Amino acid sequence: APSGPVPADRLEAGLDLLRGWDLEPVVASHALDRHPVLGYLAGTDEDRARDLQEAWCDPTVDAVLCARGGYGAHRMVDLLDWPAIRAAGPKAFVGYSDITVLHEAFALRAGFSTLHGPMIATEVFLEDAATQDALRSTLFEPESVRTLGLDTAAALVPGRARGVTYGGCVSLLAADAGTPGARAPARGGLLVIEDIAEDPYRLDGILTRLLRAGTLDGTTGIACGSWRDCGPYEEVRAVLADRLGGLGIPVVEELGFGHGPTALTVPLGVPAVLDAPGDGGRCTLTAEVPALARDAPGRVTRRTVSETTDTVR
């Protein structure tokens, strides 16, 4: 649990789902902690970092699954021993929301691909079958889920783009901008973004900061996910069109990942193609290689997984 505190009952429900996939989840030592003073954190920064470090460097652990998002990853990311993580090699790493900070760190500091997917103690994972199926298929049958996109997906700016996927929760990307080792610019990158509970004017400010920081320079295309509780979608859409439409690159809206009712698993750090046909055709994001190919980072080759709230062996 690298960010916020985790409800024990939801964690146990998520573990039961993993056990149903023939996985052996092992809960990290501090996964159910709560910071003694700052109750919005799942334990101290040092303990949360230690849990992640130990899970990653344990050779019996095949994957690290986050329990929930919230807030806290920024506080512990610099406490991790990145040379040791690089030496341990790649694993499957799953999460979204606040976990965006760690996705960027694994990409930029270790060179590993990761999975923007559901945390196991969240409602969307516990209650939505499509979300569960997408993660399970990505872990065990990645060749079967190379093309992503719900029926809600539409072209905000038509076109076709190819690049290496990166991104996540857009407010976290903006918070990361300008920090040591942050991504700027993202030349050749295919950006995926979403967020929750940000008013349209705040989304405007977030996107404007990324634009001014040069983070989006060289980005080839943008896939947008859900914008839950971000205001009337017509207003959100207007902000996206205003801030992103002038980049001259394809933009797809409502692809089906993030904080929405379904959270598809999106591989980050892999070459992909974004299709946004202007004739009303199906909009998709297609990975050019399976997310966890046998010779690619993070492949789960045995029916075992690990978590920073659940370390699966």
Question: How would you portray this structure in words?
Answer:
The protein has two domains: 8-145 and 299-312, Rossmann fold, CATH 3.40.50.10740; 147-287, Glucose Oxidase, domain 1 (3-Layer(bba) Sandwich), CATH 3.50.30. The longest helix has 14 residues, at 200-213. It is α/β, with parallel strands linked by helices. It has an eight-stranded mixed β-sheet with strand order 5-13-12-7-8-9-10-6. Strands 1-14-2-3-4-11 form a six-stranded mixed β-sheet. The model is unreliable at 294-313 (pLDDT under 50). The chain has helices at residues 8-19, 45-57, 73-76, 82-88, 100-110, 123-127, 129-140, 170-176, 200-213, 233-244, and strands at residues 25-26, 63-65, 92-95, 114-116, 147-148, 154-157, 159-169, 189-196, 221-228, 251-253, 266-268, 271-276, 284-287, 310-312.
